[in-house]
Amino acid sequence: MNTLPRWVEILLIPLINLSLALCVAGVVIALVGEDPIRALSVMLKGAFVFSGGLGYTLYYTTNFIFTGLAVAVAFHAMLFNIGGEGQTTLGGLGVALICLALGGVLPGGVVILFAIAGAAAFGALWALIPGWLQAYRGSHIVITTIMFNFIAAGLMVWLLSGILRGGNQGSPQTNVFAEETWLPRLHEIVRGLGFDAASSPLNLSFVLALLACVGVWLLIWRTKFGYNLRALGHAPDAAASAGVAVPRMVVIAMAISGALAGCMALNEILGVQHKLVLNFSAGYGFTGIAVALMGRNHPVGIVMASLLFGALYQGGTELDFEFTSITREMVLVVQGLIILFSGALAYMITPWLIRIFAKGATRA
Amino acid sequence: MADVEGAAVPAVRLRQISKSFGAVRANDQIDLDIAPGTIHGIIGENGAGKSTLVSILYGFYTADSGTIEIDGELARIDKPADAIARGIGMVHQHFMLVPTFTVLENVMLGAEGGALLAQGAADVRAELLRLEQEHGLEVDPNALTGDLPVGLQQRVEILKALRRGARILILDEPTGVLTPAETEAMFAILRALRDSGVTILLITHKLGEVMAICDAVSVMRQGRMVGQRVPAQTSREELAELMVGRQVTLDAQPTEARPGAATLSVRDLSWRDANGAPRLRDVSLVLRAGEILGLAGVSGNGQSELLDVLAGLAPVQQGQIELAGRIIDATHPADPADMRQLGLAHVPEDRHRRALVLPFEARENAVLGYPKRLGSGPWARPTTMTEIAQPLMQGFDVRPPNPKLAARGFSGGNQQKLVLAREISAKPKVLLVGQPTRGVDIGAIEFIHAQLNAMKAEGCAILLVSVELDEIRGLSDRVAVMNAGAIVGTLDRQDATVQRLGLMMAGQAA
Amino acid sequence: MLEGAAELWIDALRIADGTVRVAVPLILCAMAGLVSERSGIVDIGLEGKLLAGAFAAAAVASLTGSPWAGLGAALGVSAAFALLHGFAIITHRGEQIISGVAVNILAAGLTVVIGIALFRQGGQTPTLMPEQRFSPINLPGVESIGAIPWIGPLYAELISGHNLLVYVAFATVLGVWWMLYRTTFGLRLRAVGESPAAIDSAGVSVPWLRYRAVLIAGLLCGIAGAYLSTAHGSAFVRDMSAGKGFIALAAMILGKWRPGLAMVACLLFGFLETITPRLQGVEIPIIGEAPTALIPVLPYVFTVILLAGFFGRAVPPRALGTAYVKEH
Which residues of chain B make contact with A240, given a CB cutoff of 8 A? Predict the structure, then answer.
């Protein structure tokens, strides 16, 4: 049996994949006629060095943590949830309904708690239906989750151009929520403590995202439920033999996955926009796939990968200012390449490494 | 009968064929000559290397070493296309048919006779008609293959091979899925084919078939060719001896049985699979405390399905099970968790798929199916798992005794010991054991047999399913034999000779 | 009275004409997906290949001035993405869904990046001149036949006057059907999607068959892309595929992986899109104002309902989505 050392699996392979993706992206940049090294340094500065850059990076990171966790939880049960976009969208709807109904009626903190529950519940619902259809009706979850992304988008257009549209809003969006329901910005908190901090959209949902990581870790590796989930993912027949009710687990796993994706709306809607707008999911749900792949479906890995993508996104916006030929869409290219190398071509590199390390072992 | 001793050039000559899968030597320096125009049987137990050998001949695998000669000519066979070009055809154990295709389309596939189907279709139709008339291979070319009974599907496979000009036809366990009547019909076809000059290689583990139809028979055991006989000049006993091999008998020491009360009763259990095919027919048996009941039979005769139903993995459709005072039937179902609660433990036949989660650590596997061992309440604590796994692994001599090693890192024998340790430690009243020593090294076999006897001594009722007759005979106090989903009869240990069991496995009542 | 009916007839023809125009890229992509999936390969990268094809066509047409060069570029680029997909999943047995997602994201990124680098118009290509596009073709006798009442308008409005790629799309449906059910290649293609082991045992190469299927899918998506930007439209704009690849996927499923039915589903979806603006503000009894915003969602809803087995069963090719690995 050829197995690789643990550090190779969790560190070296993601790094190799990232380097490959960056190299190919570098070639694209060079072909476009710009200097790849300068582009990289601009992105790094934009992500970490410039004033507020880090705050923005972590703000993007928050989105990726939620959607990455969502993909990962489903993946542990061998379910491919590519419906993160739709689930996030529905999560936003949940937040908006709660805030519009209860904002100003109940104390802000209470509304926020309800809004969190609303985001999770609506996201869960939107994933639970495909989960149920897969478990009990045999529909393929990949196709149904894709379809549900589009259905969610259409639903949102209908609602925001119709009954949910704010009275004084020209574009399809809701009224602004009551201010006490807004999630506090972290720079305000830091300033409140007497420190200096640059303004950024980074808000309390970042802390929620980190808590979600701990929660997911506990759930997957420290509860009986998580144990059954992983058993189901690795060996459905063995799980069934062990008495796991497989269809029910599929539905629950999808619900949890959807709830996590739904919570991304906390950052965007409750933390930044303070109103429900169209297309706020903006591809974060799909990026969650890349995040989960790179992070090897482990919360620690997902935080690292989210940080990477957060930096890419924030650094990418810097490209718009510094270059005329390359823009933030370059980040999409990198992202696509990462998915390609660490996902689709995952089996291309491992045999190589196994051979290299097997040689090393025989020599040693 | 065709001339077996003839000096004619052999249709197939294998020399020194070897093939390994990882550490397993599936074929070890095999020599084989097959005279043209004969039916040549290759028999051996499961895992003896028969299928590997013919897969090499058909180009599915490439041999590590050795040579193949076809009609006296050295042949290089790297892929099925090479074999087909040499006039070799194969009927696989699992049919290689496209179920959504018509018979005609399946027969055409791979040799359509041109870029357009219409050109070839007419030819194929005509040829099907000819083959039908010549060999009695009757089948409707427009029928949807998936709707045909297995006997006819097999006929399509044979037609496929013949249509591509096969002069050497390999059949891998062709009767495993057939009813006795279908088997008879197929044998008639094979005889007709032989008489028209086709050389036939029949892979089987059924002695009766070899005696009935083969002109010559080669016996394989553990990857080696151990003998060749002419059926007319040998006996079933001799062939059985060759197949099993006296020198490697691993007979467990039979222990005294003191059977107690009935723990598990099965009454008139019948079960159909998803396709509606009956897999169990009116199975009744009683399992008493402190005894081992062996369930013998050619694999595929309902043993696996019986285990599934008893373990709660497949629902009871007809009949009932009584366990620990509870009746389980179609209206009172029980899932695997319920069955465990009632004191039933299960060591599944398919260890890798059913008994273990291979990427899981040993300690995680040591608690699979026993939620209480994971930790208190909703929690799963790795330390608790380690505390449970460590003594189990030591007690059952699982090597290496590392609870954090992934299950796939253990040898087959150690994996099985881990599974057995897990199930036995639950102190079950009933233990279902499927193929306990399949893929297990010799040292571990003895250990596992000793553990089963120890369980029996403690009053556990054990149902042992095995295709290894020696294992069944060495461990069981009584032996029930299954054939075509029904229990043919039950023998006491002293009456369960290989010969009698063999006859019963072939369907003859006790 | 008769005059009113004639007007209604013309109106119906206009809707049918619009339906056809909208349905063309869907039909081409659905056929692409169908060929790929019939060989056992899931293709959720239709969207990306369509987008990449649209960009390549408009960019090259704009640079060279020839729509034909644009079409060639679209075919090449889309095929390249298809082969990348094939390389990942056929040669390296990668996860088919992930590979498709990668294709989609790569296409979304690369089209904009390269578009900005080439034209500096925010990811758009310059608007194409008429001679840089595929222009409508008037079929013979439009003048004379068009004058005939009833049939004339049918010929002039609906049948004649489309660009070449429209006719190509419908010919493709026929071609795919013929290829699948009348040729040896089609027989093998269907077989490899159902049971790759049967193909292998029949002495035919599974990877080579699947590569060809993937390549055909790429080429068809390329034509669809060229249609979007150089025939139907007159420039590439970012994200111009706008989910059409996924709608085509839905149509293919709704059409139960059969060319004719899939085409009908595409036409149905095209019809829905065409009538949407006409339904704006229309009052429907009981429901009230027609929820036109929800009409674009219908293709997806239909597909989900079909997949759930609530009306008929859509049975995908049996080996769909799985890499072929020899067992032992």
Answer: 313, 336
Question: What pLDDT band is residue A362 in, cutting at 50, 70 and 90?
Answer: low
Taking residues B166-188, what's their average pLDDT? 82
> Is it the case that residue C317 has pLDDT exceeding 90?
no
Structural Rg of chain B based on CA atoms:
25
| Nearest alpha carbon to residue C48 among C224, C233, C281 | C224
Residue A203: both structure tokens together: 């808000």
CB contact under 8 A, C308 and A28: no
State whether C190 and B81 contact (CB < 8 Å): no
**Of the candidates A1, A226, A241, which has its C-beta nearest B354's C-beta?**
A241
B336 to chain C, closest Cα gap in Å: 28
Nearest-CA distance from C35 to chain A in Å?
17
**Per-residue pLDDT tens for A156-211?**
999 998 888 887 767 889 999 999 999 999 888 888 888 888 889 999 999 999 99
DSSP state of C98: H
* A82 to chain C, closest Cα gap in Å: 9
Residues 6+ apart with CB under 8 A from C75: C53, C218, C219, C222, C223, C226
Average the pLDDT over each of B280-294, C114-128, C256-270 and give the range with the smallest value: C114-128
Residues 6+ apart with CB under 8 A from C208: none
**Residue entry with tokens 């509870």:** B326
Q: Of the candidates A144, A155, A337, which has its C-beta nearest C307's C-beta? A: A144
Pairwise CA distance, residues A352 & A361, whole Å: 14
Note whether C97 contacts A: Cβ–Cβ < 8 A: yes
Q: Which long-range contacts (CB under 8 A, 24 or more apart) does C3-10 make?
A: C6/C149, C6/C150, C9/C150, C9/C153, C10/C153, C10/C157
Size of the A and C interface in Cβ pairs below 8 Å: 155
ipTM associated with this complex: 0.89
Nearest beta carbon to residue C307 from set A143, A332, A346 = A143
Nearest CA in chain B to A232: B357
CA separation for the pair B375, C313 (Å, rounded): 44
Q: Quick one: pLDDT at residue C137? A: 85
Q: Which of residues 96-135 of B touch C (CB under 8 A)?
A: 96-101, 105-106, 108-112, 114-118, 120
Q: Inspect the interface and report whether the beta carbons of C109 and A329 lie closer than 8 Å.
A: yes
Nearest to B425 by CA among B467, B454, B445, B403: B454
CB-CB neighbors (< 8 A) of C190 in chain B: 98, 100-101
DSSP category for residue B251: P
pLDDT at B253: 58
Q: Distance, in angstroms, between C80 CA and closest chain B CA?
A: 27
* pTM for this entry: 0.87
For β-strands B292-296 and B461-465, DSSP reports them as parallel
Strands (E), B63-211: 65-70, 73-75, 88-91, 168-172, 199-204
Q: Report CB contact under 8 Å: A241, B311.
A: yes
CA-to-CA separations, B434 to A67, B135, B359, B427, in angstroms, rounded: 44, 41, 22, 18
Report the alpha-carbon angle B196-B197-B202, nearest 5.
105
Other Cβ atoms closer than 10 A to A355 = 11
Please compute the mean of the pLDDT values over residues B94-118 and round it to a whole number: 90
Q: CA separation (Å) from B255 to B90, B287, B450, B462, B472?
A: 46, 17, 10, 14, 13
Q: If you average pLDDT over residues B201-216, what whole number do you get?
A: 86
Rounded to 5 degrees, φ, ψ at A330 are -55, -35
Q: What is the DSSP letter of C284?
A: E
Is the pLDDT higher at C181 or at B114?
A: C181
Which helix (H) or strand (E) segment holds residue B499: the answer is: helix B498-505
**Contact call for residues B53 and B224 (beta carbons, < 8 A):** no
Residues whose CB is less than 8 angstroms from the CB of residue A258 and which lie 6 or more positions away in sequence, other chains included? A70, A81, A83, A87, A90, A123, A124, A125, A126, A127, A128
